[in-house]
Amino acid sequence: MSEIMIYLIFGKNLFSSKRKIQQILKEREKFFNKNFPILKFNGKDVLFSTIEEKIKNNTLFGGAVFIVIEDVWQNKKFKEEFLKKGEIFKSPDIFLIFFEKDNLDKRDPFFQFLQKTGEVYEFSEPSALETKKFIKEILQEKGFKITKKGEDLLIEFIGKDLFNLSLQLYKLIAYKNKEKVIKEKDIYLLIKPKIDIDIFKTIDALAERNKKEALKLIYKHLQKGDSPFYILSMIKYQFRNLLMIKEADSLPSFQKLEEIHPFVLRKTRSQCKKFTLEQLKKFYHKIFKIDFSIKKGKITPEEGLELLVLDL
């Protein structure tokens, strides 16, 4: 009996995961007709019998078939049936990829089966250093550079999602055109930050001096797995916007507000009414003091967030 041609590709680095899938496809093209069918399924609700039927139909007259099943991990029924009837995949003409966008429990019997019978590739979330290297490589390829502040802000807005980062970098490259240096102001203008709607609710709670609600929302972010650095950076970013809009009352609006992404500008205008200019300046200064204390190791990021709320 032939071996099962199965691949498990998983992890939070979607860019590398998708690139690996494309690489596998290209490798198989060398041995089979380029037009071999690629069948894609949403694994959350797919039935094993559906995959079984598709395989029979596509291999009836010979030829290879390539199957990609995404997000199957929570589909317990499929996994149980697969472990019982996986024999149908024992063919040199059937290639099966399981693609998961998150980390997996390696103790899961399904994971252990795939590890024994196929090829497993894990692509973890890149480190800060790897993310910066990725940005540099994309830009160098096109003859571009980015300032240190611009790079830090881009990572702050997008995070370590290399796939999304690549899309945003190409957008910035197209916008700058002949100007070969991407600056902080370009990020503010063009990139919509990965800002959760709960951040706006948190700012509302802070504006209303509702410490209980503000802490509740911050803990909600932490429980969801958000980094405390991310939460603080988004609060700092939003208060910067509030301050800019408030100050724009006495300045030509185009000098200031053009640096705020239109989506964020719309969301922020109503919040401005809840603060005086002096309150915003005081709170913005407080955020920087807490940020400085965290970077100096005087307090933890979690303590910094609590201080920010409790010191209202």
Would you mind describing this structure in some detail?
With 312 residues, this protein is α/β, with parallel strands linked by helices. It has three domains: 5-122, Rossmann fold (3-Layer(aba) Sandwich), CATH 3.40.50; 128-190, Orthogonal Bundle (Helicase, Ruva Protein, domain 3); 197-310, Up-down Bundle (Zinc Finger, Delta Prime, domain 3). It has 15 helices and seven strands. It has helices spanning 14-29, 48-59, 76-85, 109-117, 128-141, 148-158, 162-176, 184-190, 197-207, 211-223, 228-247, 253-256, 262-272, 277-295, 301-310, and strands spanning 5-10, 38-42, 65-70, 94-100, 119-122, 145-146, 181-182. The strands form two sheets. It has a five-stranded parallel β-sheet with strand order 2-3-4-1-5, with helices on both faces. Strands 6-7 form a two-stranded parallel sheet. Strand 2, helix 2 (48-59) and strand 3 form a beta-alpha-beta unit. Helix 9 (197-207) packs antiparallel against helix 10 (211-223) and helix 11 (228-247) crosses helix 13 (262-272). The protein is elongated and about 75 Å long. It starts with a strand and ends with a helix. The model has no long low-confidence stretch (mean pLDDT 84).
